[in-house]
Design goal:
72 residues, mainly alpha, elongated
Length: 72
């Protein structure tokens, strides 16, 4: 695909390697923002992930503390 779009660049006929991908919108500085109406949904997702990590950390801690210790 890059050979079809950027043949001159790949063959060494031009020096600006980044110009071709930029022309085809493969790279660039495009910033996309989510609408404010989704803020509550994102907070619920984030809090759900944090709660899951908390439960996982507590389970690992409980398992490590309750595990029988053997002395050598």
């Amino acid at each position: 695909m890059m050979g079809q779009w950027c043949g001159n660049v790949l063959n060494g006929k031009t020096d600006d390697f980044m110009a071709c991908p930029r022309q085809h919108d493969l790279i660039g500085s495009r910033q996309l923002f989510q609408p404010a109406s989704r803020l509550g949904t994102f907070h619920l997702i984030e809090n759900g992930l944090n709660l899951g990590l908390l439960v996982l950390a507590l389970a690992v801690t409980w398992w490590r503390v309750r595990r029988p210790r053997t002395t050598a």
